[in-house]
Amino acid sequence: MQLVDKYISYVKAEAIKNPEKSWNKILFGFQANKWRMKLIPNKNLARGYQKLEQMMMSLVSDSLYRKERYVWGNIFAPCELMQCFDLATLSIECLACYMSGYHLEDYFIDYAQDIGIAPTLCSYHKTFVGGVESGVIRSPEYAVTTSLSCDGNLNTFRYLEKKAKVPFTFLDIPYEADAASVSYLADQLREFAKKLEQTTGKKFDENRLRETIVIENETRRELKKFFELQSRHFYPGELISHLYLMMGMHLLIGTQEFLDLIRFMNEDIKNYPLFEGKKILWVHLMPFYQESLKECFGYSKKYQIVGCDMSLDYAKEMDVQKPFEALAEKIIGNLFNGSYSTKAEDIEKLADRLKPDAVIHFCHWGCKQASGGSVLLKERMQERNIPMLILDGDGVDKRNSHDGQIKTRLEAFLEMIETGEGKSC
Amino acid sequence: MLGYVCKYTPTEIFESMGVEMKRIEPEVTSFTQADMKMHPNICSFTKGVLEEALKGEYEGIILTTCCDSIRRLYDVLKTELPDKFIYILDIPRITKDAGIALYEKRIRNLIKAYEEFSGKKFEEKKLEAILESRKEDEQITLKEGEVKVGILGARANDNIAKILKKKGATVAFDLTCTGLNRKCLLEKDQLLTGYTRGLLTQFPCLRMEQAAGREELIRRYSDSVDGVIYHTVQFCDNYSYEYAWLKQNIQVPMLLLETDYTKQSYGQILTRIEAFLESLPVKSREGKIRQGGKDRMYVMGIDSGSTSTNAVIMDQDRNIIASSVIRTGAKSGESAQRVLMEVLEKAGCTREDISWIVSTGYGRVSIPFADENVTEISCHGKGAHYFNPRVRTILDIGGQDSKAIRLNEAGEVTDFAMNDKCAAGTGRFLEMIARTLEIDMDELGPTALQSTEEIEITSMCSVFAESEVISLIANNKEKPDIANGICRAIANKAYSLLKRVGLEAEFMMTGGVAKNPGVVRAVEDKIQNSLYICSEPEIVGATGAALYALTKAGMK
Predict the structure, then answer these.
(1) What does pTM read for this prediction?
(2) Do A174 and B75 touch (CB under 8 A)?
């Protein structure tokens, strides 16, 4: 462990001192970590979560080695289309998290703020912009973003296009979920496929997209099953395991490998004992580094996160016959799009299925859409007698999350649900 | 009356139906409702609109899907005001034909919804008449004047323009969405399509995809003004990207000005704009100079800060004759009167011997006996240059704000950065922590110097930092180590301010916090350079003010 910590400190210092030369050291660390996860997996984790961790680490570490093999995206970018061109999608939010593995997030965030980026912007975006600006993060040949849910997307990618010369496709996601919106977005997606044809020199095969969607539908069905099983069985994970699952559902969905993993998890979980503690439904992002939360939910027989809204932010079947319209419908129908009441309804449905004892809504610093609706969601949960806790913090910047405060709020909340008295706090 | 917020709102449609349309420009004193019903970390404009809307003066409110905060505002208003016409209009970000076609559909749906709500009927003919009368292109022109300032960035209320006007500057252009004229297109054979096209193809705001033409125009315009004010709204992040980009790519002096739509922020806006104007080419000042002392001439500078009020009397040869520092009481005017008496006594002069008095600092406008006021930013620049002409970068940490100021060889301010409305990294913050540690404010620095263990205070917010300190105390950490952690937190904050103006040596620190050896050491460690500190760091601003007075009296 000491060796790992030393390497992390060494890379951080190098990235600050010689940013241009640090990239390969960063990638080497990712590779080493991938092999460590494969050869000496964390035995405390359920086997499914071990495999998931390895898969996500491989996605990032293997893709980054070849810039022509991946695109930058945001978490809602349609990775299905990229898969048709054998391209991986690395979302900037996900990369920001991996960079924080080297504790570089504070340096990058300060870097971005020093050049004038707003301190109140989402920390994932600040980390990423700072990483590129400082010369540490290297660029691929193309990028894609959507306007779904997050204001920062268009402006971050536009900025990166200027600064790092990475051209990008912008997908404008309409707010209203109607036929006009679907055809408006489907046309943009067709254009985007053409753009990828030009960029990669490969021909687009619509049948391949159909096959991807068949797998995607199956994966989502399996995930719903998994959430239900996880609400019955103890399946030891860490806080970050749930984040990996969320990343996988956005960046790897549609691949056979990911479907096989979820299927494996569904079989594996049945070998574990029944879960008798309190079941938590998590809403929004996870501050994977937060000590108190890690302690509370890591391998815990008392409190288990049984599902997260972000992993199942679209729950319907996609129409295989009209793949572009299906993709458009999926993006527009995402619970982060449209009015908050749609989101609340989707979370209610999830709650009805998983019957959690409580909901925890994490308000990530800079995420206006999550914070702005949190009170409304609390009221909706109250109507169903599900206690809900709103936690303020930051998904990646430790300086915006005060552990003492989170600990107090969390513990008081858990004490409250233990007694079965509470409604919300 | 219907309220609206966004320039892409089809207001003419409603006017044609006889509805009064009002663009909501909130100016509030608190965000009580918004903090409760939404969340404190939401864009201040949005919170202001919520406060305004809940007053109930509007028949309804038309919002647009312009940003995350406004989208959530819609959800809250819809719940809070179920009987009113609360509508969110989905605006495409693409301005090509596909976007126009989609937006036209959205507008038609809006018309239908309002017809159902109000019983009124929309008639194309009436809209045509309105468009006919307003048929003009959105006119973006450059105005002339002696000192020309352009306004860019996020929507701004008219305070900025008012202040500029009052200070004799011309608003040469205002490209914020509230500063632009409306663009009405009239296409008789397809009235609504043409009208929609006109709306969508206005000068693009940063949520739109086609913002490229924007940059070209901004570059061209910026070249022909003396300075640019780049306005952003607290917790609105979209515009900071453009600011960051322009800062690296245009030459003209630019001020980043963040506002939060509260009445209280006016003072802070005023200081920043004044200091900015002062840093631009000098304008002539008015006023009559008194004769002053018989043999020698004396001037006075007075700096009314939040913690201390400081005064300096200077003679015609730039010698400091006397200086005084007193604690500021509840009323800055009274403290000023006290310091005036004290410094006059020390100098052995009377009020009549003083030819000209310049006031500076937060309370500068509340000093009745001052002949003129100049911002503390310009005064610190001048004062620092007086004490040490080699100084290029000043760090001033006072009671309620901290600033980094960059000077040129002549001691003129070329750039500055100020902390936002937040106590983190200021003297108040140190006072709060000293209280928590149960030590005297003056002891905090010396205590920090005895530290043996490095403690990281990670919270950037002063309130969080205080509770972090309390947890450290609970964990039996040593006071010197905590004190040093706090000093380093201040230094980190200061460092990012300094970086914003460039880290050119030599460095000087001014303000009350410069007397704290713990902070001084931490800042020196961070910048890896030494700080020049004059014997009384609290009088640098007042000295600068006295120098302004001397210039005024023609004795520089």
Answers:
(1) 0.82
(2) no
